[in-house]
From TrEMBL:
This is Peptidyl-prolyl cis-trans isomerase. It comes from Candidatus Nitronereus thalassa. Keywords: Isomerase, Rotamase. InterPro entries: Cyclophilin-like_dom_sf, Cyclophilin-type_PPIase, Cyclophilin-type_PPIase_CS, Cyclophilin-type_PPIase_dom, Cyclophilin_A-like. PANTHER family: PEPTIDYL-PROLYL CIS-TRANS ISOMERASE-RELATED, PEPTIDYLPROLYL ISOMERASE DOMAIN AND WD REPEAT-CONTAINING PROTEIN 1. Its EC number is 5.2.1.8.
Amino acid sequence: MSDASQPTATITVSSKGETWGDITLKFYPDVAPNHVGNFCKLAREKFYDGVTFHRVIPGFMIQGGDPNSKNPDRSTHGMGGPGYRVNAEFNNKPHTRGVLSMARAQDPNSAGSQFFICVADAAFLNGQYTAFGEVESGMDVVDRVVSAKRDGNDNPFDRIEMTVTVN
């Protein structure tokens, strides 16, 4: 059991009515307290429930957290957020396999709700994106997500949905 100062989260992944498994996350509140707090707040509000992993790139990462992905119109996937921004908290945590980090637009202070999990080391992201946690268990589920068949925008053809709970 984790204490309130060290929350964990579980992402339950499913597609076409089949549960694929859980991805358990532990956070880095010491180096990215605002990002950890934002992710946990959104999860507690059920913001992430029903959104998809809308961008999967083998050898790189899986990305989710866009509320637009609840809509079947795939042209809007990857463009949504919570309606506010979270300022960057760049830190010395390296972007290695299993690291949880915030997606953003060109502006370093444009993170909101979209996040990604590295499936391979991505040192070129170090100091450019806010690493705020890592996969504690469930990399097999992450690997299954990243291997999904996808379109030209790296969006899986079949919806891969998540439900996120904070423990």
